[in-house]
From TrEMBL:
It comes from the Bacteria. InterPro entries: PQQ_b-propeller_rpt, PQQ_rpt_dom, WD40/YVTN_repeat-like_dom_sf. The lineage of its organism: Bacteria, Candidatus Kerfeldiibacteriota. This is Pyrrolo-quinoline quinone repeat domain-containing protein. Residues 148-176 are annotated as: Disordered. Pfam families: PQQ_2. Residues 155-164 have a biased composition (Acidic residues). Residues 11-147, 206-302 form the Pyrrolo-quinoline quinone repeat domain.
């Protein structure tokens, strides 16, 4: 079965012949794609403020009302707990990240004090990493905050905004840290990716890809992408990053390139398309092929040359 969001509904199509099996209508837009749980329940958020849980047969299991609009996909851990962030720049603020049981009951919610919260990435140890521009948060599955990074956050549990000598937290990386969270833009709430070694990859609205060490809450390296060719003062990284087994991170930029950056921060390759890279995450196939779409109307499939 193929599940996708379209305008104000969730659809299910037969994967073999494309025949519509069912649809669930919502009271406002449904953006990005749904998340499928281990029990095959489909979760979809909407600008109407609800997270919908739909059974594989198209019957509504439950819906949960948040404090604002809901845009970004939910994430689900090994215990079938559903985590998702609230708010949307266009449809209404919600500063909370939510944790729900598979029955739709609230376990906890945490107020980031920002206007919107991106989808969390879940590490192998169960820690959630999620953006709420201009900060990056690390949180235990229990709802306990581990640390947060960004302007005026002190780079971790320490609430000071410098190292005692007037320099930003993070040592020599302080300048990069300030750039990483410099602006409150939609790219600033795009979900990070976590590599096998624990490195967190995240992009911001200045078009900067950054690698963050979660143990020290410092920036390992940054990579600057280009400007939108139609608006040369505009930068950004609208697509969700993905990272492969070798630590190569793939991310689309407003400059219409898809980038592959290795774990040292070096460019492996970049590929130019004829339009803006789609906001949806690129997908990695089992053979290492990268799939993504562009506003030029094409689906791209790219493999690294061996």
């Amino acid at each position: 079965m193929l599940y996708f969001a379209g305008e104000n509904a969730l659809f299910a199509l037969h994967a073999d012949n494309g025949k519509k099996q069912w649809q669930i209508k919502m009271k406002d837009k449904a953006l990005f794609g749904p998340t499928i749980g281990p029990d095959e329940v489909i979760y979809q958020g909407s600008w109407d403020g609800y997270l919908y849980a739909v059974k594989p047969n198209g019957k509504l299991k439950w819906k949960y009302k948040t404090d604002g609009a809901l845009s970004y996909p939910a994430s689900i851990n090994k215990d079938n707990v559903i985590f998702f962030g609230g708010g949307d720049a266009h449809a209404g603020p919600d500063s909370n990240i939510y944790a729900l049981t598979s029955k739709g009951k609230l376990k906890w919610k945490y107020d980031t004090e920002q206007t919107r919260v991106g989808s969390p990435a879940i590490n192998v140890d169960g820690v959630l990493y999620f953006p709420a521009a201009p900060a990056l948060f690390a949180m235990k599955a229990s709802g306990e905050l581990k640390w947060k990074m960004g302007p005026d956050t002190g780079g971790g549990d320490d609430d000071s905004d410098d190292n005692g000598d007037g320099t930003p937290p993070g040592g020599d990386d302080g300048e990069d840290l300030q750039r990483l969270f410099a602006s409150d833009d939609v790219a600033g709430i795009i979900t990070p990716a976590v590599a096998a070694d624990g490195t967190i990859y995240i992009g911001n609205s200045d078009g900067v890809i950054s690698a963050v060490n979660p143990d020290t809450q410092t920036v390992k390296w940054t990579y600057q992408t280009g400007a939108d060719p139609d608006e040369t003062d505009k930068f950004g990284l609208p697509s969700f990053p993905v990272v492969d087994k070798d630590g190569v991170v793939y991310m689309g930029s407003l400059d219409r390139y898809m980038y592959a950056i290795n774990k040292k921060g070096e460019l492996v390759w970049r590929y130019k398309t004829g339009g803006g890279i789609s906001e949806a995450a690129p997908a990695l196939g089992a053979d290492g092929t990268l799939y993504f779409t562009s506003d030029d109307g094409y689906l791209y499939a790219i493999r690294d040359k061996k």
